[in-house]
Specification:
It is a single chain. The chain is mainly beta. The chain is built from no helices and 11 strands. Strands 2, 4, 5, 6, 9, 10 and 11 form a 7-stranded mixed β-sheet that branches. A 4-stranded antiparallel β-sheet has the order 1-3-8-7, with no helix packed on it. A hairpin with a 4-residue loop joins strand 7 and strand 8. The protein is elongated, with a radius of gyration of 14 Å.
């Protein structure tokens, strides 16, 4: 079993910054993709950004040039640096990872979510 634990959410004023972290632990053989999704009230969960084991990254258009995803593979941790935050970035942010254990079968895991609120 694999666990994803997020941290770093909170309340910030418009234009401010936050850094989210997500650490994977448990029975890990390989982590293929790590990423972040978000869900605002009344909306579906949507992709924010992801990072592959090969170093590729991708972002939702709404966060390009403001958010940066990075990984520390030695720590099985992914980060999301969020700058120039806007009220519309308010949501619960979920970490997601595709991880294989000793059976080498990739499975998708989710974190518990962390609240990000942008308000003056």
């Amino acid at each position: 079993q694999v666990q994803l634990v997020e941290s770093g959410g909170g309340l910030v004023q418009p234009g401010g910054s936050l850094r989210l972290s997500c650490a994977a632990s448990g029975s890990i053989f390989s982590i293929y993709v790590m990423g972040w999704y978000r869900q605002a009230p009344g909306n579906q969960r949507g992709l924010v950004a992801f990072s592959t084991s090969g170093g590729s990254t991708s972002y939702a258009d709404s966060v390009k040039d403001r958010f940066t995803i990075s990984r520390d593979n030695a720590k099985n941790t992914v980060y999301l640096q969020m700058n120039s935050l806007k009220p519309e970035d308010t949501a619960v942010y979920y970490c997601n990872a595709a991880v294989s254990s000793s059976d080498r079968i990739p499975r998708q895991y989710w974190g518990q979510g962390t609240q990000v609120s942008v308000s003056s």
